[in-house]
Amino acid sequence: ANSFHIGLADFTYAIAEVPFMFLFASFEKKLGFRNVLILCLASNVLQSVLMAQSHSVAATIIILLLQGPSFGLMVPCVQFFASNNVDRRYISTAQLFSTAVILSASIVAGNFVSGLLSAQMPLRAMFYWMAGISSIGLIIYVLAGRK
């Protein structure tokens, strides 16, 4: 890939999130919070598996559109969860800290660890590891919520 492809991939990755952030309320109303979060996690697993199998720049850029339902719905999920599970006096603090920890610190730490590991293994293997870790989280969330 050349610098244009990388720029296009970054743009695609970021812009795909925006419509899903705006449509979160509709998704939550139709599917319920739990199912929206399952959709986020499943989209992340699928995106990671497909990235591991991608053999072309064009396919990679198309796969990056899964960032929309993956991260684009995750951001409002975090805010929604904080708003609905914390004493009203502390909602803004809960939203601030949940965003800082879940959406910032974890990304920084994850990218750092991924960078270290990618120096030790092929990039495809990294995407499979990401899919595996995300799958474990998805399975735990689905099983923990069963009644």
Overall description:
With 147 residues, the chain is an all-alpha fold. 84% of the residues lie in helices and 0% in strands. The chain has seven helices and no strands. It has helices at 3-15, 17-31, 33-53, 57-63, 67-84, 91-118, 123-144. Helix 1 (3-15) runs parallel beside helix 4 (57-63), helix 3 (33-53) packs antiparallel against helix 5 and helix 5 runs antiparallel to helix 6. The chain is globular, with a radius of gyration of 16 Å. The mean pLDDT is 90.
Layout of secondary structure:
Blueprint: H1 3-15, H2 17-31, H3 33-53, H4 57-63, H5 67-84, H6 91-118, H7 123-144
Helix pairs in contact: 1-4, 2-3, 2-5, 3-5, 3-7, 5-6
Q: Which labels suit this protein?
A:
147 residues; mainly alpha; 0% strand
Structural class: mainly alpha
Which parts are unreliable, with pLDDT below 50 for 5 consecutive residues or more? none
For the sheet with most strands, the description reads:
none
Beta fraction of the residues? Answer: under 5%
What is the succession of H and E elements?
HHHHHHH
Radius of gyration: 16 Å
Number of strands: 0
Helix count, DSSP H or I runs of 4 or more residues: 7
